[in-house]
Amino acid sequence: MISSAMQDAINVQIRDELYSAYLYLSMAAYFESASLPGFASWMRIQSQEEVTHAMKLFDFVNERGGRVTLHAIEQPPLEFESPRAVFETTYEHEQKVTGLIHNLYEVALEEKDYAAQVMLHWFIDEQVEEEDGVSQILDVLERVGDNDQGLLMLDRELGRRQAH
Fold first, then answer.
1. How far is residue 43's CA from residue 64's CA, in Å, rounded to a whole number?
2. What phi and psi values does residue 146 have, to the nearest 5 degrees?
3. Is residue 48 a contact partner of residue 21, using CB atoms and an 8 Å limit?
4. Once rounded to an integer, what is the mean pLDDT over residues 47-62?
5. To the nearest 10°, the Cα dihedral for 73, 75, 76, 78?
6. How many beta carbons lie within 10 A of that of residue 11, not counting itself?
7. How confident is the model over 9-22, as a mean pLDDT?
8. What is the pLDDT of residues 64-109, one digit of tens each?
9. How many angstroms separate the Cα of 99 from the Cα of each of 93, 94, 152, 164?
10. Residue 142 above 80 pLDDT?
């Protein structure tokens, strides 16, 4: 049985993961409107991954005999300055999510919830991967600068990303 403190903390994290999905979908819409379909595709896949993360937490609460309660999700930004600004926002957001996961792990430690600790190890590893991937794209965007040809080449490369 899951403790109420752990259940409540995971329910908040479910909201935060769904907000991430919503944020990345908004970014996909921005890229679509900017005629950058590869960037848009990358963000759509990112959005789908965040929904998968939320559902992993959703299922965990249910498997432990808890009750999922869904919280309101705020509207994400609609406009962005540039592709680089989008990925800077993405990187900052992923760093924030890493902190949220660490806080959730702290609750699991306080509650002596060993099952939650084990489950959260996957999220901790995932956040390392998320931050690294976005950081690499930012590095390329830095090199590309204002070069439209470089941006289109990166767009093509990002469009090759496959959902897993």
1. 32
2. -95, 15
3. yes
4. 98
5. 160
6. 19
7. 98
8. 999 999 999 999 999 999 999 999 999 999 999 999 999 999 999 9
9. 10, 9, 33, 24
10. yes
Domain annotation for the chain: domains and CATH numbers: 4-70+78-158 (1.20.1260.10)
Angstrom distance (rounded) from CA 95 to CA 101: 10
Residue 137 contacts residue 39 (beta carbons within 8 Å): no
Residue 1 has pLDDT above 80, yes or no: yes
The Cα 4–Cα 60 span in angstroms is 14
Q: Over the range 105-133, which residues count as b (16 or more CB within 10 Å of their CB) and which as e?
A: bebbeebebeebbebbeebeebbeebbeb
Confidence (pTM): 0.95
